[in-house]
Amino acid sequence: VIHVAVLGSAAGGGFPQWNCGCLNCAGLRQGTIKAVPRTQECLALTGDNDRWILINASPDIRQQIETFRPLRPQSLRDSPIAAVILTNGDLDHCLGLFSLREWHRMTVYATQQVWHGLMSQNVFFRTLQRFPGQLQWRDLTPGLTQRLDPDGGELWITAFSCPGKVPLHLEGLQASHPEDNIGVRIFDCSERTLVYAPSARDVTPELYAQFQGAQCLFFDGTFWSEHELAGLGIAAQTAADMGHLPIGGDAGSLAMLTDLDVPRRIYIHINNTNPLLRADSPERGLAESAGWEVAHDGLELTL
Amino acid sequence: VIHVAVLGSAAGGGFPQWNCGCLNCAGLRQGTIKAVPRTQECLALTGDNDRWILINASPDIRQQIETFRPLRPQSLRDSPIAAVILTNGDLDHCLGLFSLREWHRMTVYATQQVWHGLMSQNVFFRTLQRFPGQLQWRDLTPGLTQRLDPDGGELWITAFSCPGKVPLHLEGLQASHPEDNIGVRIFDCSERTLVYAPSARDVTPELYAQFQGAQCLFFDGTFWSEHELAGLGIAAQTAADMGHLPIGGDAGSLAMLTDLDVPRRIYIHINNTNPLLRADSPERGLAESAGWEVAHDGLELTL
Fold first, then answer.
1. Cβ–Cβ of B77/A20 closer than 8 Å?
2. Angle at B147 between CA B57 and CA B135, to 5 degrees
3. Of A78, A245, A288, B189, which sits 20 to 30 A from B167 (CA to CA)?
4. Which long-range contacts (CB under 8 A, 24 or more apart) does A190-193 make?
């Protein structure tokens, strides 16, 4: 059995975003659209309801932990959080690590690219290295299967490369590499499988194959359209420039994954500009008619 | 006129703290003590109700901005936040900078020590340097008076050195320096003065002199007692080890500042373990009898 809780479902910046007054953000603040606030993407999962694993550590993690009761400490100083899996090195996936300080021992699962990109160039991480073994790194080499939480977990993990990009803060410093951005398959002894891929610039045949057979897929729901930011007058970058495949359109993920045989398909990492955030938008209707759900903070499921 | 809003009043980790089950944290979660939650220390101030300055950028800044309406954006992409003053380089004062990304131009006021400690060893800051001038540094050399927010503010600032320490993540890398930790005097044209010193290991005669004549002083309220953490069985470090003068005791700040002629004296940066957090504690009674207030999130005042 895998228990999953969505702690945060928005892309970097959250919903609303601090400096954004777009239709969605302004409408949410004014209460004029059908939408709920969302913190930045972060998943919690467990196989035994005792030790929990996070996928990505969002900047909102402090608020997210207090909101989700099973993650609260049980004694004077402790936490049920045993490990954090990083799907890439983006700030919205890593900043939360620094809020998990104060002498807590944790395992971080990340590819070599992501780990070295973080550790070698940010002295902040010394805060998480106050005693030997405080932060233990496990290499998420794509294709390699390993036990998740070696101290007693019943879950297993295999990473796979996802088309993506280097984090913004490493652009120009570090060449692109297939291990910059990954998805993960997490499964238990009866092979119930969760696939998590919150960021993908394309659905290649190799990626498609990774999704098959899962009971549940979380997929990149950042943008509805390729030119979403330009269309709103916010920025010139396309979805592809930012490492994301849009949901809509002939070449979008809704079309590309239409025949996928996965019972639960859930969009996550949703940007504040995405019309999917409005419960009554035509785009939301299209996604739901095609069998997709839209992740929201507090969504829980059991596989 | 200076308008001040306390966005966050707790020390690093906030209240409750993610991995803490002490009397205060557990009691707050269970509703068995008289206390309110507090996010991590951060002040917002303005002289014109148009452009706002933050003192310190807490990891909770996203939540704090949405809670305090005047900091919300007014157009498609903008923010009333014009500048951030850093009193030191501790993570709980700086991590929030990374949540203020997305092309927003800001001025950062910090000493040379603090600025170089941040910028030279953390590649994350490239996210805030996407165009020339996105982050503009103004040196807060102690004793030097300068205009706050050169683009139109009516407030002035002078920094002063405070006994303190280098940030935890720079310990062993960077020697102590008088500019590691500062307090600031902020005043308008009629010399209404706010003094802000959220972290101080001692009250020297020089420091005492900086407080005189202010209308309002915010001072280090981290710990009540020198051995607070050891007494709770949490950690061996003393208040002094961590760069803080405790409030209580013969040599504490309550005793040392008892004759200070400042109309409003407010403790801030309060650690989750501090009995001051409980509205009915004897310690709270002592502080209030001596004329001190205890900062809480949402406290606003006008000088």
1. yes
2. 45
3. A78
4. A192/A1, A192/A2, A192/A303, A193/A303
CB contact under 8 A, B21 and A168: no
Which of A58, A62, A79, A273 best tests the B interface by mutation, with the highest count of B CBs <10 A? A62
pTM: 0.97
| Contact state of A65 with B235 under an 8 Å Cβ cutoff | no
For the segment A36-64, the average pLDDT, to the nearest whole number, is 97
The pLDDT value given to residue A191: 87
Q: Do A123 and B170 touch (CB under 8 A)?
A: yes
pLDDT band at B153 (very low <50, low <70, confident <90, very high): confident
Chain A residues in contact with B122 by the CB 8 A cut-off are 121-124
Rounded to whole angstroms, the Cα distance separating A137 from A46 reads 19
Task: Work out the average pLDDT over A34-43.
Answer: 98
Q: What percent of chain A has pLDDT over 90?
A: 95
Q: What is the amino acid identity at position B101?
A: R
Q: What is the distance in angstroms between the Cα of A70 and the nearest Cα belonging to chain B?
A: 12
Q: What is the mean pLDDT of residues A55-66?
A: 98
Which of B169, B242, B271 is the mutation pick for testing A, counting most A CBs within 10 A?
A: B169
Q: Which residue is closest to B69 within chain A, CA to CA?
A: A29
Confidence of residue B102 (pLDDT cuts 50, 70, 90): confident
On average, the pLDDT of chain A sits at: 96
Other residues' Cβ atoms within 10 Å of the Cβ of residue A65: 28
How far off is chain B from A69, nearest CA to CA, in Å? 10
SS3 of residue A36 by DSSP: coil
pLDDT at B151 over 80: no
Distance CA B71, CA B84 (A): 13
C-beta separation of A155 from A149 below 8 A: yes
Which chain B residues are closer than 8 Å to A173 by Cβ? 123, 126
Give the residue from chain B lying closest to A78, CA to CA: B19
**ipTM associated with this complex:** 0.95
| pLDDT attached to residue B152 | 67
* pLDDT score at A259: 94
| Contact call for A91 and B126, based on CB within 8 A | no
Q: What is the dihedral of CA B210, B214, B216, B219, to 10 degrees?
A: 10
Q: What are phi and psi of B243, to 5 degrees?
A: 90, 20
State how far the Cα of A97 lies from the Cα of A109, in Å rounded to an integer.
12
